[in-house]
Amino acid sequence: MELFLQQTANALALGGTYALLALGLAVVFSIMGLINFAHGELMTIAGYVLMYCGIASVPFVIAVPLAITASVLAAVAMERIAFRPVRSGSGATMLVTSFAVAMILQVLFQNLISARSQPVLLPALLSDSVRVFGLVIGVNKLAAIASTIVMLVFLDWFMKHQKTGVAMRAAAEDFAVARLMGIRANTVIAGAFALSGLLAGVAAVLWVSQRASVDPLMGFMPVLKAFIAAILGGLGSLRGAVAGGFLLGFIEIYLAAFLPPEMQEFRDPIGLGIVVLVLLIRPNGLIPSATLKAEKV
Questions:
Q1: What is the pLDDT of residues 245-282, one digit of tens each?
Q2: Is 129 helix (H, G, I), strand (E, B) or coil?
Q3: In 29-54, which positions are buried (b, 16+ CB within 10 angstroms) versus exposed (e)?
């Protein structure tokens, strides 16, 4: 029982990170219909800011907001420079643009910084463990769980009570009608990218805090998992993105912990098989978006 509870805490920490990343993808997709595969590079930017802050002996409590701010600014710049000029094009055009932006940034990271993984200096506190209800849990895991809860509460408040958040919700329901009501497209889309950058920055801090390193491809695998989580929860649904992220985290951790040793090499295929099984039962995702009426045929 203790092992189960221990692994549940680990699953909550990992699932929370996936949920934040899936939310960042879902926010942009719900408004623009774009899966931004350059989202992972926002994580990498935040990770490198943490690395350089550590080299410059900047306190971690200052380095974290700097890293998150860098991710937000990079997301806004990405929208303005790369996506706004092609926004009137097809969905395929924007998708190719997102891949191009991701590859350009990866090459820049490799050539201007390093192609190898670089260590990130972290406070000693993050490597400590504490006892909670008889369980020994890492401080970094507790920080990940707490940060996820704070961000989810903040996002819920922002979407319901802030003017920009309400405008985003209206645009996600029907962008054309929202524009007729006076909502400015550029402002809403830039706000969506800024919010996705915020979520990517927080996720990057959580990811680096548990791995203490950063590399040019750091964001690729987490965002790929977040994309799977977004589909699992219901593409375009914010609540679905959260549900899918946590479910994927639980699947990964429980398989790693409880799958027999001789089956561990099949862990990833089994995990994807579970995801496919869920989608066979719920083809539109766990919590489908009200604006997406896709049906199995």
A1: 999 999 999 999 888 888 888 888 999 999 999 999 98
A2: strand
A3: bbbbebbbbbbbbbbbbbbbbbbbbb
| Region for residue 135 given its phi and psi (left: phi exceeds 0; alpha: psi -120 to 50; beta: otherwise) | beta
Q: Which of 139, 136, 250, 154 is nearest to 202 (CA)?
A: 154
> Three-class SS of residue 174?
coil
Instruction: Say which range, 93-97, 181-185, 267-271, 293-297, has the weakest mean pLDDT.
Output: 293-297
Q: Nearest-CA neighbor of 156 among 146, 166, 147?
A: 166
Judge contact between 247 and 266, C-beta under 8 A.
no
Choose among 48, 49, 67: nearest CA to 200.
Answer: 67
Cβ proximity of 142 and 152 under 8 Å: no
- What is the CATH architecture assignment of 2-125+132-281? Orthogonal Bundle (1.10)
For residue 290, name the pLDDT band (cuts at 50, 70, 90). Answer: low
Of 151, 133, 127, the closest CA to residue 27 belongs to 151
- The whole-chain average pLDDT of the chain stands at 87
Task: Give me the amino acid identity at 50.
Answer: L
Bridge partners, 213 (sequence order): 119
**pLDDT at residue 71, as a whole number:** 96
pTM exceeds cut of 0.85: yes
Domain regions of the chain by residue span: 2-125+132-281
Q: Which of 144, 200, 250, 209 is nearest to 22 (CA)?
A: 200
Phi, psi of 289 (to 5 degrees): -70, 140
Task: Identify the CA nearest to 24 among candidates 69, 72, 62.
Answer: 72
Position 187, amino acid:
T
196: tokens are: 């996705």
